[in-house]
Amino acid sequence: MASTMMESLFQRTMDDLVKGLRLQMIGESRYLAKALEEVRKEIKSTDPIIKVTALQKLTYLQMASGADMSWASFHIVEVMTLTKFSHKKVGYLAASQSFHEGTDVLVLTTNLLRKDMGSKNEYEISMAIECLSRILNPDLAAALTSEVFTLMASSRSFIRKKATLVLLRVFLRYPEAIRVAFKRLLEKMDDADPQVVCAAVSVLCELTLKDPRAYLNLAPDFYRLLEKSSNNWLSIKLVKIFGALTQIEPRLGRKIAGPLCDHMRKTNAKSLLFECIRTVTLGLLDHEGAVKLCVEKLRENMGLGDPNLKYLGLKALAALMDSHPWALTESKEVIIKCLSDGDIIIQRRALVLIMGMVSENNVEETVQVLLRYAQSADASFCNELVSSILQTCSRARYELVSDFGWYVSVLADIARIPHGEHGDEVGRQLVDIALRVESVRTDVVKASRGLLLDPALLGRPALQGVLCAAAWIVGEFIERAPLGPFEILEALLQPRTRLLPFSVHAVYLQGVLKVFVSYANQHTSLKKTEQESTTSHAAMKGGSLRAAVELIKANVAPLVNSVDMEVQERACNVLGLLQPFEDFNDADQVQAGFGTLAALSEVFSLELGPVSVHAQGRVQLPDGLSTEDNLDALGPMDSSDDVLLHTGDVRSSTTYREWEAEFNFQAPSKEDPSGVNSSAALLQQHRHRHESFYLPSDTASLDYPPPQLTPSAATAEAAPQSLTESSIFNGNPLVRSMPRQAKARRPVVVALDDEDDLPGVSAPVSKKGLKDELVFSAIRKALSADGNKDHDAADGLEISPLGEPSSRKSRHSRRSAKNKEKTSVGVGVGLGNEDVSQVPEVGKKEHRRSRHHRPSRHEILVVKTNKDGSSSENENEGTFELSEKTHKTKQKHRSSHRHSQRSGKSPVSAPQNTDPIPDFLL
Q1: Of 211, 67, 278, which Cα lies nearest the Cα of 779?
Q2: Are the CB atoms for 181 and 149 separated by under 8 Å?
Q3: pLDDT tens string 162-201
Q4: Tens digits of per-residue pLDDT, 317-364?
Q5: Which helix (H) or strand (E) element contains residue 465?
Q6: Taking a C-beta distance cutoff of 8 angstroms, is the pair 104, 74 a contact?
Q7: Cα–Cα distance between 221 and 798 in angstroms, integer?
Q8: Would you list the domain boundaries of the chain?
Q9: Exposed/middle/buried for residue 152 (C-beta within 10 Å: 0-12, 13-18, 19+)
Q10: Is the pTM for the entire model greater than 0.85?
Q11: Cα–Cα distance measured from residue 685 to residue 348, given in angstroms and rounded to the nearest whole number
């Protein structure tokens, strides 16, 4: 005794633990470890005060630092059994916090919970119910359903409310409890205490949201409560229920539209207001009055500045976007203001709505607004705005764009946005428009020239795709340049182009080549039209060409030593074409150079057409071409010398000297500095050696083999003949308030064959779990077994379980009509191989629960008696079976209740004073 008192005297209290933990600036983990060691010793004490204090500290440590307290589960049960309420409360708190379905000591709490739920102290009962709701498992639910059922009839409203709320967890864990307690749950909707009614409606709301069809015949009761409700929480739950019911029974909408509008006009609670708006957007879209009131309330609340109200308002407007586009039009100003909100989620919601309002009539105005916001937005949202513009304007072959000149200028403005990161997409669309919309190529070249002349864009890695596209466009369509090629040459050859990567720089050099060829061709044409006497003008033009040559040499010559092979090769090609123009006094050499450039000009003048990315797959193989699916047929070739000889024999490890001697390869002679003949001979030898891998050619030539004409070229030539004008996008949600005025004809956009062949995305298929199916089936049976109960609404509307209105009938007349039917419904229990026909009828008043025919938890069989007396399974009513896994988990419960089974008592039973089984159990 003395030692226990000393331990209690020197034991650190809960306050000491908290104060010490707050003082630990460093070494907190060591302090927690030491505290846990103390708790492990103290919790084994036989003194209840020491044990409770230790458990209290352990519970705090678990909440504060996530310490494991599963090792103390038995000690928690010991504290729960203490008689003093303050001690018992600590144990119940620890159990609620640490116990779960798999805790092994839960079986020890069954009798304890039953005892406390039958206590005279309402606080002990409340504490036991709350703990039960947290640690409930199927075994506990089966054992304590009768106690919960009894507590629902308690004279104290506090206990009735707690017992009603715990029913939801009981139903989900143990669906057979529905047969016992569901009718009493419905009775609580008429309870004298509003809190009990609110608790019952809350449970029914959660169940209705999972399976609304089972509760459709309760709509009159819900409607009666909604009309007279003055409790915001109760009204919110009822509105949620009707939001689920109206989706499966639209005719309910005309009935609840009035009460919903009254709540929206009168209530000051934003939660109830937005719940009413949500219900309108779910099932009352056909009621224009309710929708107009919702839009008015949304605009009013979104203008208050509360970010939560803005988000809910935008979400509600998104639900109205497809069915009522005028709602977005009327709220356009409020939506646009949300783009400048500090919350990124609100900005994204507003952006989605704005892009949903875009049509051919307002696309230019909308894009200009978004670009203005993109200039001042942060980098993340700026790129989202730009991405939305690019995706919306380019969809379905630019169907929303009627003025491509305007859209090209928009693409150029997007490229100059400081935080823009969509350079590749902007460049792709510029090239796409230049190839597919012929009438706007001059504008595309002009925009590309402006991008190339801007030196600030060269230092931004995100814009390399735009610059690459611009360089290709000005080179390909240089004849459409508005101010001549020389200025473009200066842009392509400015010193800062060295900042570009090699791949982009190579395109720049190719553009320089094309621009210079065009420039020289213009110079030749001008000289032919001038008179021989105007030597000064000709000299001036010659000087301009000379300046272009000097400019190219000065900037391209250093690139001959580039580490990138493609840049080096293209630089050499450009300088090679400039060799005849090194001395303008040598007329013959200059003339030969002009001839070469004229030939290149004819090649570059051939127009390129758009080609689909899948065009190569449509190319048919020529007849006689042998293709091998497996490259192993080529033999053991390595990357350098191993080749396949023309004889068909595979020869490995062939050296270059052996290959040269076999084919009598002649090295280039000194008399042929150009190497043209030697190159042709080398190519001929290579073709002779690999003849089976060359496409057949019609002409026998020692020169380069001619290119094969692919079907893609024919497709590109035939594309303009099969063009159809783009139809107006009828699916746009924005309704035009005025008739469309006549406008200029939209430019033709070349269509590709497989542009619209995009794979579809299938919606995910969701499946209900087995437990949910058990709950819903049991509830449907409970409601249907209770009969088609007559529910009087305000105007006498009655909804049948199938959603069909029926006339008002009294209960007496309905019961008499049911008694006239010769068909009766029975509930049979599958026990082994028993004959179902031997199941007693349940329509008799004297029927009682038999101890030998206790319902099995793994099967409930619904049997219907026909006119001839035979019985048959009602498959529509549904026989539900528990899975093998659920069956096994309940074996433990059955073994723990063998004594009750021997005495004929079921663990799930009604109170003792209710011997006749109520109708809802049948």
Answers
A1: 211
A2: yes
A3: 999 999 999 999 999 998 899 999 999 999 999 999 999 9
A4: 999 998 999 999 899 999 999 998 989 999 999 999 999 999 999 999
A5: helix 464-476
A6: no
A7: 10
A8: 1-98, 486-606
A9: buried
A10: no
A11: 64
